[in-house]
Amino acid sequence: xxxxxxxxxxxxxxxxxxxxxxxxxxxxxxxxxxxxxxxxxxxxxxxxxxxxxxxxxxxxxxxxxxxxxxxxxxxxxxxxxxxxxxxxxxxxxxxxxxxxxxxxxxxxxxxxxxxxxxxxxxxxxxxxxxx
Length: 131
What we know:
Blueprint: H1 2-48, E1 69-70, E2 79-80, E3 92-96, E4 99-103, E5 108-114, E6 117-120, H2 124-130
Antiparallel strand pairs: 1-2, 3-4, 4-5, 5-6
């Protein structure tokens, strides 16, 4: 009886971990789409106002600090940060003025604001999965 419970528990935990990782991946994809859309909207707004279209930063959040509001310059709601010590799954960490990490169970994914685009800088296969 105990062996059966152990086998069922092992199977259930594996499935639960897969579902959790998929949930975090869906969160990343939706937030990434919002961030990229916000950058595009900000560039267009700058052009229409005859401002320089260059976007120098996405937020004024402190680097590597928990509970900072990320991406506030390009989206209308806040995404709260984690830090590189806590590595909270399904969360973003700001690691430099224009660099961010999103934590998935399998591995962290790196992003950089460069040339007015929010670009994935992790392994090519991981970045392709996000598009």
